[in-house]
Write a structure and sequence with these properties.
By secondary structure, this protein is of the alpha/beta class. It is built from ten helices and ten strands. 33% of the residues lie in helices and 22% in strands. It starts with a strand and ends in a 28-residue tail after the last helix. Bound molecules: adenosine-5'-diphosphate and magnesium ion.
């Protein structure tokens, strides 16, 4: 369980970035964070991870066995242990492209084994089998020996999720995990995250309200550093308008049509294909 309590962060010039962010994430929840660009979504995740120090407030992770980590104030060994308890999935995958897929998955637990063992012996057979199992969970087990750099974006994101699964975290944190993917890969990733959340809660930032409405159990909206909505995942148009302001049309943009079948007539040139000309 994650308890975020009145997180506050300001810049030296007085600009308030986070203005008392509070929410909880419990077992069995898949919580989506929505909000316009610059609202403070990533910063909230960074404070939870202890990557940015909040000025005030706290974030506490309570493990199923009752152990508790003060994420905003712990340091050193405690902080490393706390970070290990959180499986992070980013938009940019953060994979080592020259390594095999399986090696990238095993990196998920590198911080948990003694440095001497990682140098001398590497992972045990049981650990390797568990990493393959994590790949199986994201339907990528046949890619285990492939060089990661040769995969597509959707495949890399699946590997990143397998790496987080292999870490056996007590919370998954995802920052725009589908922002760089096409609609069908985005859907596939949401379909992987949803069942994961039943055993380990997922807190993720998303830019697509239609995805959070369909897959999340709850939605939190952040606007100018404050929580302005915390409730059912299906938000009304008026609520979304209030949250996004001028950005609303961007997030509600209809899904682009699939590419025409090979050999069909090319459509009219659009977007970047048009030469710039004064209007
Ligand atoms: N380390 C930082 N130093 C200064 N400003 C920051 C820092 N991190 C984030 N910000 C600012 O805080 C605001 C929220 O950023 P962020 O949480 O990244 O937005 P988003 O909701 O798009 O993820 C933005 O205005 C951003 O410029
Ligand atoms: Mg962000």
């Amino acid at each position: 369980m994650l308890h975020v309590d009145r997180l506050t962060k300001s810049l030296p010039d007085g600009r308030v970035l986070l203005n008392g962010i509070s929410f909880t994430v419990s077992r069995g929840e898949f919580v989506g964070i929505l909000g316009a660009s610059g609202a403070g979504k990533s910063l909230t995740l960074r404070c939870i991870l202890g990557l940015t120090k909040a000025d005030a407030g706290s974030a506490r992770l309570v493990e199923p066995d009752g152990r508790s980590f003060e994420l905003t104030s712990c340091t050193g060994r405690n902080q490393r242990e706390a970070r290990r308890r959180m499986g992070v999935i980013f938009q940019g995958f953060n994979l080592v492209k020259r390594l095999r897929v399986l090696d990238n998955v095993m990196i998920g637990r590198l911080a948990q084994i003694h440095p001497l063992r990682s140098w001398l012996y590497g992972f045990t057979d049981a650990e390797a089998e568990e990493a393959v199992q994590a790949l199986r969970q994201v339907k990528m087990e046949t890619y285990a020996d492939r060089v990661t750099g040769s995969l597509s974006g959707g495949e890399m994101q699946r590997v990143a999720i397998a790496r987080a699964i292999f870490q056996r975290p007590s919370l998954f944190l995802a920052d725009e995990p589908i922002a760089a993917l096409d609609p069908s890969n985005s859907l596939a990733i949401m379909k992987l995250l949803q069942p994961l959340s039943r055993t380990t809660p997922v807190l993720g930032v998303f830019h697509q309200p239609e995805m959070t409405a369909r897959f999340c159990t709850r939605v939190i909206a952040i606007k100018r550093g404050a929580v302005v909505y915390d409730g059912a995942p299906g938000l009304s148009h008026a609520e979304l308008e209030e949250i996004y302001g001028d950005e609303l049309m961007q997030v509600l943009r209809p899904t682009p049509p699939a590419a025409p079948p090979a050999g069909s007539e090319p459509g009219p040139a659009v977007g970047l294909l048009l030469p710039n000309h004064p209007s």
